[in-house]
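Narrative progress, year one. The postdoctoral researcher (J.K.) led the effort to move from monomer predictions toward full complexes, under supervision of the PI. The following entry was the first complex the group processed end to end, covering 898 residues in total.
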Amino acid sequence: MTSIVDYLLNLLSFIEIDTSLLLIFVILIPGIGLFLVMTVNAMVAVYMERKVSAFMQDRLGPMEVGLLGFKGGKKFWGGIGQTIADAIKLLTKEDIVPDNADKKLMLLAPFIIFIGAFVTFVAIPFSENLVVSDFNIGIFYIMAMSSVGVIGIILAGWSSNNKWSLYGAMRAAAQIISYEIPIGLSLLLVVIVAGSLNLGDIVQWQSNHRWFILHSPFTFIAFFIYFISVVAETNRTPFDIPEAESELVAGWMTEYSGFKWAIFFLSEYANMLIVSIVASIVFLGGWLSPLAILNIGIPEKWMFLDGPILGFFWLMIKAMFLIFVMMWFRWTFPRLRVDQLMYLCWKVFIPFALANLFFVSIWELIF
Amino acid sequence: MYKILDKSIIGADEMVLNMGPQHPSTHGVLRLKIITDGEIVSHIEPIIGYLHRCFEKHCENLSYEQIVPFTDRCDYLAAMHMGHAYSIAVEKLLDIELPQRVEYIRVIMSEFQRIASHLIAIGAFGLDVGAITPFTWTLRDRERILDLFEQVTGARLLYNYIWPGGLAHDLPPNFIRNSIDFLDYFEPQIIEYDNLLTTNKIFIERSADVGVMPKEVAINYGVTGPSLRGSGIPFDLRKNEPYSIYDKFDFDVPVGEGKMGTIGDSWDRYYVRVLEMKESIKILRQALSQIPDGDVQSAMPKKIRPKKGEVYSRYETARGDVGFYIRSDGKNIPTRLKMRSPAYCNLSVLNEISAGWMISDVITILGSLDIVLGEIDR
Amino acid sequence: MNDNIVSDKFKEKCTLLDNGSIMIDFNDWESISQFVYDSGFDYLMCITSYDLESDDTLGLAYNFYSTSEKKYLEIRIEFNNKEEIFSIANIWRTADWHEREAYDLMGILFKGRPDLKRILLPDDWEGHPLRKDWEEPEYYNGMPVPKDKSYWE
């Protein structure tokens, strides 16, 4: 796959400057594009979460705020512009810093989390040729960069000078670091079968064979281990102990208000999008249409369904569905206690994932 | 023989954590001073008094009729029970015989109030554990009960309806019809809550075996109500010492059996409340079909002026055993009125049953004890 | 239905009152309370403190119930307001908070328990409000206590 950066370099090669200066300019354009993607995702995801949660709780959700005069129906799509109103409110809110808190660290923490999410987006392909930079160690890079967020959370909890925030931060650190292991093991499984760390090659393998989730019963189990572990990674219920609302009053984010809190919020939804896209690419066939599920022969007329333009929509549909499932979890289940969470990771998921790895290798040898 | 510990000296490893008066999960303005070692709790001291409104001192300046609205405000989530309990106490002092219609209407109001109060208890317990959706569903159903109350008394939360000697006014014409419609709607809803909360694996892991209260501890600390019945003791004032006309109805007393864990844990206390709602529905159906005609104000005395004496009268509210101790000097205002509130004694057992658990469990145990600060602080 | 076990055993020390309750002298409370617990009255329902308006006398009413035999018992003690009463909080743990409330609002002192501090009122409150001769203080921590009615009266 050619990446966007390469494409833009080729496009602008007629300009007679040194390549490295051109590179700086060329990097800015996808950077701004990624930032736009993150903000649009946050707006859509927040609105979706509020509506989904409202319908599950037998109420209507935001209904009043309209967008450019368009208010939506009376019963369903009421407050479309609600997220924009929220964003404006958060930007203009007073920034309160507690008395004995460490100001510099408090300022630094949200940006570390933001950087972690932003830098991971660089390696994620949105369609066949729509990737900012085509790493040949794609999955490895994504896993590494998504771990940067933990530092931000610990800094946020420590610098708030609040015992409750400290509790939340310590719990978050333990949780996120532990749950990276089942994620790594499940993704390792995929790499073993597909033979490459590059995300484009993995989708290519799936278009030659079939969707990964249906490849063997062990990859099926691996999908579920991966999905539940990423729910824990992004601190969503039932694993939202660090920001447990009824115990810790927003946990490590308690002392943040205004713009810094908006950055936390943005990064949380960006994380959700990242892990959903990775799950769809790796297990659910990425930008391939459902015709490639079992790899029956496709007639020539229908081949356009698999092309790069529609591929983007297929990927987004799968990612949105997984995000919907994550929201569904949040409003259905109670939350697990810290020691039960740790028990689940170390005594249930890791043995299962290791056994899975072992059996998949045997399966590949036999079949 | 037990010894009361005095934990004012903290060890070197331990941290004092303050779950302050403002907290999403302390069910009101309650302050918990928790001494912890990491996440494990070693001692909790509940500090109350943030909602103290001098109820008992006020009662020494008000006549017996004027005290009724003040009793509503003590336990604001079960106001009918407080009014009923107080009226029974005063009627014992006066020795009045009430018409049957008054007794039936009082029982109907009390049982509806019990369902409403348990709905909040169940929803708030789910909210404490982290499940947000059942709370909105239980409140939606409670709104219908509050609509029924509004038809009868004109108020949704603080009614001033049950007066010593009778009621404020009679039932409106369509009330029985509406109540039976509500009961038909409500019975399948309990199955919905069971599906979402009671048999949920995560919920069971959070609440089973947590905060076990053995029988002797419960009685020694004066715990009553569903919290006591969750420990396996079948003690319900409506069956053991029936007041009003409760001996005419046929209902069971649900008791915790340790289905999902040890007997007397938080799950048992929660499940007793769910079962009690079903029993209340049974009582309501019987009462609504048997209600006689009559005049609700025929037995009300013009002026309440009891003879000199004392009375202690007990009543079973949604939270337990409320006691009114009234001393009268022959005047029309009481000399001393003391209200023994059930949540006051239920809260005092918190330290004993939560030693050794984690902070998340303290919230669970507090939610399962179901306290209302208005009643504790009076 | 009240029980007469106590008055049968401690005949000289009790007086039987009109409503079936038993009045004892506060000096005998230590031995009688242990006997009451041993006779099966395991549930202490309520401790009420009251103020007889004559000559500095305060009173306490204890209401007991036996869950096994379903019987009630009420014991009353009346004493001068300077005396210290034996605390039964080591026998019935629920008495701990009830006695703290009696001390807080009525000013009755208890002996034999480690920590008698206020429970409903703030820790630095002065006086005991539920007494009949209680007068509102003028100021509490610099804030005027009586309502300032100059705005509407």
